[in-house]
Amino acid sequence: MPETSKPTEPRLILPRPVALVGLMGVGKTTVGRRLADALAVPFRDADEEIEKAAGLSVSDIFAAFGEAGFRDGEQKVIARLLDDGPQILATGGGAFVQPATHDIIRQKAVTVWLKTDLRVIARRVANRSHRPLLRDRDPMEVLREHEAKRYPFYARADITVDTGDQSHGKSVELVIGALKRFLETK
Ligand SMILES: Nc1ncnc2c1ncn2[C@@H]1O[C@H](COP(=O)(O)OP(=O)(O)OP(=O)(O)O)[C@@H](O)[C@H]1O
Ligand SMILES: O=C(O)C1=C[C@@H](O)[C@@H](O)[C@H](O)C1
Ligand SMILES: [Mg+2]
Fold it and tell me: What pTM was computed for the model?
């Protein structure tokens, strides 16, 4: 090995799935996909898998079956996905707030709460129409309501990572660092 080259750090080996939880727009899907690439494990997005299973978009499921119908499907799909070994699972923003789904995720995965300032999230979700809970509402108002109702659930995740307003790549680094520290103590 040339003297100048540094030894590469061994890649983190996941013993079980990692589930990303947190508000709509915080980065569960986009950070999760890059995190899975970095760790060479499969990436799954619960919203996409629910859409595949139903053959309908999330918005259409809400319209046809109501939020309760969506939550039923979400619970089943997440339970199935988490039985499939080490992976990164991006959960939907409301999944970890449903008691039965919360318990399934806590049992089967290492849970990571991705968190950042609500103003950063409001900017990211502005002008996107595929999130039924944001449609026709002021995003900041919805996010504040969700902060009040959902943060107590998210706070029960194994790990919290505040990603600030940084790039996807930096967020991935922060999550990998936090996972290493958490898994070393297990
Ligand atoms: N760390 C980040 N740096 C830069 N942009 C980000 C970051 N995280 C998310 N974004 C941007 O914010 C938007 C929302 O991110 P994303 O879809 O990953 O959120 P989500 O948590 O999966 O939301 P939902 O719960 O609605 O599925 C995307 O346009 C994404 O590129
Ligand atoms: O925060 C929520 O309750 C939601 C977030 C999205 O990921 C989707 O699961 C759906 O739009 C509901
Ligand atoms: Mg998503």
Answer: 0.93
Residue 66 pLDDT exceeds 70 = yes
Cα separation, 26 vs 31, whole angstroms: 9
- Give 135's pLDDT tier (boundaries 50, 70, 90): confident
Give the total number of structural domains in the chain. 1
| Centroid of ligand 3 to alpha carbon of 90 (angstroms) | 6
Instruction: Note down the domain range covering 112.
Output: 18-184
CATH number of the structural domain spanning residue 55: 3.40.50.300
75 exposed, middle or buried (CB, 10 Å; 0-12, 13-18, 19+)? buried
Atom of ligand 1 nearest to the CA of 93: 25
Residue 80 falls within a domain, yes or no? yes
Q: Please tell me whether 37 is known to bind a ligand.
A: no
